[in-house]
Amino acid sequence: PAGRLPAARRGGRLDVRRGGARLVPARDLLGLRRAPARTAVACAAGLGAALLLVTAAPGSAAGVLAAVGLHVATAGWAAGLAAHVENAEGSGLVPDGAARVFARHLLVPGLLTAAVTLAPTTAAVLLGAASPAAATTAASLALLAVAARAWQTSAPLLPASLLTPVLTPAGDLSGLLVAAWFARGWLLVAGVAALAGPASSAGAAVPPAIAVAAAVAVALRTARRARSWV
Predict the structure, then answer these.
(1) Which residues, 6+ apart, have CB-to-CB distance to 108 below 8 Å?
(2) Do residues 96 and 22 touch, judged by C-beta distance below 8 A?
(3) pLDDT of residue 51
């Protein structure tokens, strides 16, 4: 019938006229089902990273490694987001703007990140292996991990300006700038996670506040970039 697409799953149909808000997550979930190994590895890595994050000392090397690991795990369920950015002008399957579709592609990564973070952190608190403050910090860093993933995915192409030689007495540093650009999500999450230790001395609420503030700042920057898409 008019207005209908082929089924995203066997035995069912998705109606575009009911809105792309349901279609986009359905397509992302279908992509996860078609890559079960990648999805399973990402979920296992996310669970392990979240457990280490909530039980490690704030700002410790283990805590920083866990936060980065959680950020890396988000790539396993953000393939739909990356595919959309590569075709930001839209394929015509979803009747909406590229920026709104980008936001809808964040639903599945966001929910999965929340699930793999809340499960081990809640268990750790209930078993007495972690404090509620540590769980709050872990949850805020998980939010930052998703925001950093969206920020990193929204700009997949290396800016040409970074290829300009940066001559110093130590040599050309442009290669370091290029490496930092590709690892910008990792560096952001690692930097904020490392601040959790010194910041915790000012109060238990300070590390989560820093992580949430960084996540909001990155989200606003990503939103501005997404709105520039035609």
Answers:
(1) 25, 28, 29, 32, 77, 80
(2) no
(3) 97
| φ and ψ at residue 35, rounded to 5 degrees | -130, 65
| Ramachandran assignment for 94, one of left (phi > 0), alpha (psi -120 to 50 degrees), beta (any other) | beta
Cβ-based neighbours of 14, under 8 Å, separated by 6 or more: 4, 5, 7, 8, 22, 23, 26
CA 136, 141, 146, 151 torsion-angle sign: positive
HSE, CB side, 13 Å, CA atoms: give it for residue 86: 6
CA atoms of 62 and 85, how far apart (whole Å) = 33
Which one-letter amino acid corresponds to residue 125? V
pLDDT value at residue 52: 97
The whole-model pTM stands at 0.85
* pLDDT averaged per 10 residues in sequence order, the chain, 230 residues: 42 48 88 94 97 94 96 93 75 64 91 96 96 94 95 87 85 89 94 90 88 93 78
CB atoms within 10 A of CB 168: 8
Q: For residue 227, what pLDDT is reported?
A: 77
pLDDT at 19: 55
Contact 45, 112 (CB under 8 A): no
